[in-house]
Write the structure tokens for this entry.
Amino acid sequence: MKTAFIHTPKFLEFSPPKDHPWSPKRAEATYELCMKLNLLDHPWISILEPSPLHEKTLCKFHSKTYISILKKANTGQFKEEWLRYGIGTTECPVYKGVYDYHRLGAGATMLGAQLIIQGEADRVLNVTGGFHHAGRDFAAGFCYINDIVLAIKELLQNYSRVLYLDIDAHHGDQVQKAFYSTNQVLTISFHQDSKTLFPFEGGSESEIGEKRAKGYCINVPMAPGTGDDEFLWALEEVFEPAIQLYKPDIIVAVIGADGLASDPLSNLELTNRAYSSATELICKYARKLLALGGGGYSLQHAPQAWTLAWAAMNDLGCSEDDMVSFGGEFWGDGICSLQGTPVFVPEKIKKKASSQLKKTVGWLKDNVLCRLK
């Protein structure tokens, strides 16, 4: 097995406006934590620096008009007419280097895809990736360039079947839209119910794809208050049979850490145990894996989740024996210390979340999973 960690300190050269939730420091914090825990010092691991994605490649998904405007926004000077493209809003502000930053992030994801295509890596992590809300001609939800769609389009030039799994707290709406009518991409999104969280529409279990792709879009909306046990149960019940039926050539996974209980922008109650367990499950079936960071707005805890994901991708995570023997959080400075403590969820909220998930999963089994082949 060969793995690659995509990293560059150049991300720190860019900074959204003060108090904006998105922080380029998240990637650097993850890299530093991985270094501290010796998770990058192994012969099968490569640390590679990305280059900005070429404008011509950006236009394989985005419109030329939109990219032209985003380039102009790179100066940091706002123009009101850009609002129709989502550029200059509170969530997607104009700032100096905004085009360069997101072009570099997209380049990092594309590098990961190319490493896998060329056989130079089997599993790749790009923390600064996973901008699933960017549309063909608009920015939304902190996302300006949809690196995921661009990477999947590249992968489809070399593979017949791609599975896109998104466990970010927010629905992977624009990736779903891009591949809604093709059975070459199976999209699976676990997210907080969009009626209660951005993007505030879409992402219901009834969205299953169209035409020949019916059944190749799977959504698992989760109620606010959903915790580790409910999420991991649903992941096993839906993801495992889906991948066994679909048999993808490669998995593209957005491991958004904004489902953590400490995250300020969601209402899920997950701990890092959920993220490490989810990544272990993904790796159990992934012959090839391109993993992306996605959302995560707790600068303290999101890097811990991605560090645990990286450990799992390299079979360096905690064993069950470690967790039982040392109590997880009492493991000191080792990888197990990142698992964190369980989150208390009131029984009434827990039961409601569990009941909703059981109903959703049952419906998906009866109406969607049976369509996969």
About this structure: The first strand starts at residue 3 and ends at 6. The chain is about 35% helix and 10% strand.
